[in-house]
Amino acid sequence: MDSKDIRAQFLEFFKSKSHKIVPSAPIVVQNDPTLMFTNAGMNQFKDYFLGNKTPDSNRVADTQKCLRVSGKHNDLEEVGLDTYHHTMFEMLGNWSFGDYFKKEAIEWAWEFLTDVCGLPEDRMYATVFEGDEKEHLEADEEARGYWKALIPESRILNGNKKDNFWEMGDTGPCGPCSEIHIDLRSEDEVKKVPGRDLVNNDHPLVVEIWNLVFMQFNRLADGSLKNLPQQHVDTGMGFERLAMAVQGKQSNYDTDVFQPIIQSIAKRAGVTYGEDQKVDIAIRVISDHIRAISFTIADGQLPGNAKAGYVIRRILRRAVRYGYTFLNFKEPFLTDLVGQLADQFKDTFPELDAQRAFVAKVIREEEVSFLRTLEKGLKRFEIIKAETKGKVIDGKTAFELYDTYGFPLDLTSLIARENGFSVDEKAFQAEMLIQKERSKSAAEQSTGDWISVISEAEASVFLGYEHLEAESRITRYREVKQKKGSFYQIVLDQTPFYAESGGQVGDSGVLENDVERIAVFDTKRENDLIVHYTKTLPKDLTATFMAKVNVQKRLLTENNHSATHLLHAALRSVLGEHVQQKGSLVNEEVLRFDFSHFAKVTEEEIAKVEAIVNRRIRENIALDERRNVPIEEAKSLGAMALFGEKYGEFVRVITFDRDYSVELCGGTHVPATGHIGLFKIVSESSVAAGVRRIEAITADKAEAFVDQELEILKEIKELLKNPADPKKAIVSLIEEKNQLQKQIDELNQQQGSALKKDLINKVEDIDGIKVITQEVKLPDANVLKQLSFELKNEVPNLVAVLAANLNEKPMLSVILDDALVQKLGLNASEMVRAMAKEIQGGGGGQPFYATAGGKNLAGLSQALEIGKKIIHEKLKS
Ligand code: ATP
Ligand code: MG
After folding, report:
1. In the prediction, which pLDDT does 851 show?
2. 473 and 574 together in one domain
């Protein structure tokens, strides 16, 4: 069976057992503060387990894109070195939400593996939870019983809490599990060591393929376990490992899931996969990482400097540096693999195919910039080498390479070794720890457990599409402690408050009744809960409140949200269909829209887009809002679904003119586009490779903006005495000014040479030394300087002291023939300083030329007297 077939068989099998097949959730998690990336198939169903939400179908199956590179499940360092852990992998899963439990889960898993996949029964082992005294958990005898009916007891093994008690994260749903392991070794090997001895022992050929988790508990923040309202099944099977077993391979990388990409990489590097250990690892790393990077970017997460973006950047850099060091790839290469990957997954995960050019562009830019830092880092290493006394590179330096140049420790160690050095790895780890602590304490906050006020309550009902006020009761609340004081999170049975999502900010407002009034400063989603943020808790938690949304803020926000839809459609019509939303922010002030596009949006394009949006506003198109539309129907209406969004089977469709804007959207909107009033784009910029950002304003903000611009224009016109054509008037003013400037320059020159002549005529000859001491009137300091130097050039043996009135500002200048400095011991700098006191100023310069400015114009003649005195004294002596 090829891998496509295996995937299809799995889904078909569970369909035949009355499971509904659902799409994979995006790999990037939104609205869940405990998780950055999807790390297991169950993530998207968390609320069903917790009883926050009721599923439409209580049996579900799918293949889920997972990423295990952060948090509780982090396999990054293993990837490529071993043959069965990936960063991104597909997890095949089947679920029961309060329906079937251990018996069916175990029997069906066995049936699928043996009957459908034809895997050898005697090579498979089942593990069951052996219990844990500390947690007061009993052994899972029930699961053991069902296994005993299927396989001999010798192939049923006990597992401890680490291996057989599954938890998604530090808190959340969890329970005992039963895993299925397979032994893929040769007959000879099996004879030597029985497979049961190698289960859960990190043997690359005796691996876990399927984990059947029996969800029974919720792990609370204080570490205790609480029974879930119902019992559920959550299973996860590594698709690539299953393919390895079914295809009789000994490595996930030898299956048809990886081989095509591996062959491309090997070809480009001019090597053969399977001949050199180090080269093979590098090829595996790249073939794995390109999947993680591509699918994550396609799901909307761009590489960046923080959080999820940084995780992706690190994975990309890890791939680049393996290629650089072991395959001699000095130019971007990951980017060239995107197309092949997109083709391979076209039918399973079409989001990559649909955005292949964009994803390739983003990856290319990242590669180019990292290759540059890599080179810089290598140069830096040369300097470090020269500066290091001895042969050990200290921890701080290794950390600098890591922190500034993105060099992982193993890269630094490798380069060091090649140069006959070693790295103080312990000290590096110590530096790393210091940094971790620093970033941890900055973000420190602790979230308490939910405290329920009304038991049996489910997720709250959202009334905010119709109502801005509603009668509500608190169903649960919790405290969030932060360094800067704490706040509360409150869930209501029903609420008009819109929770931040899809770029639209959360509502603020109040909860009030006759006795109290509590301000709600924000509203956010947590999976499917609508969570209201408050600084205080009501005294009576069981009371009924009027939940009132801040109407002004909401309405302004709606203008911006609807305008965003109009903008999106206009951009697609002006720039092309490649425009995809890459992010948005909509609040009461502005709208910000990020989208894929490879060039700067020109002034003309912006004008066109604005014109289209404003025309649509004037058409006053009525909102066509439809809820619970089957997703297929919505798509056939031409609705633009955003990649990276999680859509249920039924969606909300927002339409402004069926032929113009049809979007899937959960946000709130104006009843008709006329409410928006006016739309103005205020900026266009770049946010990342291939992603542009437009910021715009609407309604009274746009009006105020235009008014302000017009006001400025009006003032300008008034200054110009209201000409018929103000632009022409300004252009001729500028021309006139340039003309005048030219004339002034000429006049200054004429005046300067006339003055010069005059001064030369007045030269005093004292024993062959030519002395000029004069008060002059000049336009500026430059002219004074020029005059001084011209005098010096034309009159030999000159001492010139000029006291100038420069447009009512005093300035002194002293210039000497170079020979006189020596001969007479005259010093221009000293002289000017002695004189400057008279004009309340200061200055200096060189021995042959110095100037001084000042404040007291009336002191000029006195200053000149001092200059004369100094000269006469020197000449007499
Ligand atoms: P292992 O001990 O091998 O790391 P796990 O206990 O972390 O596996 P689960 O969390 O139970 O695995 O995930 C369910 C299934 O997903 C596993 O049985 C395995 O087939 C697959 N799987 C888990 N981690 C990875 C990974 N990093 N790459 C590929 N497949 C994986
Ligand atoms: Mg693991």
Report:
1. 96
2. no
